[in-house]
Amino acid sequence: MSGPTPQPGLRNQAGARTFFRVAGAVLAPVGIATCLYGFVSFVRYDGDGDPLGQMGLFLGGFLVFAIGGMFLNLGFAGVAARYGAGETMPVAKDSASYLSDGRGIMGAGRTVDDGSHAREATAAGPYCRSCGVRNDAEARFCDNCGGSLA
Questions:
Q1: Per-residue pLDDT tens over the stretch 5-22
Q2: Has this prediction a pTM greater than 0.85?
Q3: Where along the chain do its domains lie?
Q4: Do residues 134 and 120 touch, judged by C-beta distance below 8 A?
């Protein structure tokens, strides 16, 4: 038997999340300000100095803003994923129920009792490590997914 499943992500996931949120919150406004300053300087160009320098400020500010936005996206990706799952999963469950006439698809969307869960309540054997279904005591393979119970 192998050890516990390693957690996905970085060893210091919370620290990385905080870094991305703070760095993004600093870089995005600085980028916008630099971009605006470069644009206004370019528009007000009076022929004195180098216009490419002002355009460089505009483009550099845009780049800093884009990096700040990317950092904010990385810092808040978990929040966005949880929100998306909360919005879409009820719809997916209802769709599975509708498409399968209440029997569900892979356990999602089951709204009718066809007796298949009654066997699980009376089973006294091992639980499957893959899908969690309880099997009969003499079973060598899972009745639900076919995985080995050894």
A1: 666 777 888 899 999 999
A2: no
A3: 13-75, 80-112, 114-150
A4: yes
